[in-house]
Amino acid sequence: MNPKKFINTIKSKAFRHLTGSFKNKIGKTVSNNDDIKKILICRPNHRLGNLLLLSPLVQELESTFPNSKIDLLVNQSCAIQLYQNYENVNQVIAFPHNPFKNPIKYIRTFVRFRSKKYDLAINAVKESCSGSLFTSISNASLKFVGDRGADKKERHIARQVIYSLREFLSSIGVKPNDAIPASLDLRLANDELIHGGSLVYDIVQNAQPTISLCTHTTDTKCYTQTWWLDLYEHLKKAFPDVNIIEILPKENISKIGFKAPALHSVDIRELAAMIANTDVFIGVDSGVMHLASSSLTPTIGLFSVTDTEKYEPYNEGSVAVNINEVEIDALIAVVKNVLYPNLNTTA
């Protein structure tokens, strides 16, 4: 075994054992939902997808505590841009991704974090050891670390915490929300959407439906160039009157050999606005896939190694497809159903 990987595994197990002793903190019961005015969400992570998956929880808290202000504790990331249109989000407390490389900044951020008082602190993901730790040491009257023995029926990471939190809030006298949890939502403004639409039109130069295709991801989620080229050729054949554009990463890598017009932006909200002006997004389980969901675009998430039920795209009209179980022709049928949801395919 790789020595570094072995050490990280030991550290992870030790940390998990330590944080496993942390429990929810319940003080006096709450007489009115308006008693909860300052809320902290702990998700010390920097990945785009994980931060976007917080948006249903933020919306849940907005609905339950409309007069509250919410702080987000994350690792250094684009969280400020992601939640800039959420009026209830007050501050983003961003810890350095690597504390050993930025010890002074880490200490300053920690002091700032500990100096703030909250009515409620929430660990956004029950399996997160660091989230449990920060929630437990926060200066909060009520602390929801998470219920590790919670009902396993709800497995999606964005909804799981909401249902568990509702039970916790009921136990302390809060009247919880009982609606279906909200979808991911970046809350793109009208001017952002108009700008994104103009950029897409500059590429396609017509009013036909458009498929946005994201072929890039990392590590074991990668599919071969041969697989992507096969999918691209099938899409062109099945949808001759539909535009296909490829979303390129900052590395300017294409798995289809730059055969399709390219869409690219280093501005995360601009990229989302462009995706919002396409009709279907197809991409591997990744941060960009969740960005597409957050832009409210029907999203087809391609899965092969990660847990589909836990990370599937979460917005109306979206589906997850396990490519280990589905051939290209069946995937094309899925695309047709998402692209033309009102088309009667039984005739």
UniProtKB/TrEMBL annotation:
SUPFAM superfamilies: UDP-Glycosyltransferase/glycogen phosphorylase (SSF53756). GO terms for cellular component: cytosol. GO terms for biological process: lipopolysaccharide core region biosynthetic process. One of its GO terms (molecular function) is ADP-heptose-lipopolysaccharide heptosyltransferase activity. The keyword Metal-binding does not apply. Pfam families: Glyco_transf_9 (PF01075). It comes from the Bacteria. InterPro entries: Glyco_trans_9, LPS_LOS_Heptosyltrfase. Keywords: Glycosyltransferase, Transferase. This is Lipopolysaccharide heptosyltransferase family protein. The lineage of its organism: Bacteria, Pseudomonadati, Bacteroidota, Flavobacteriia, Flavobacteriales.
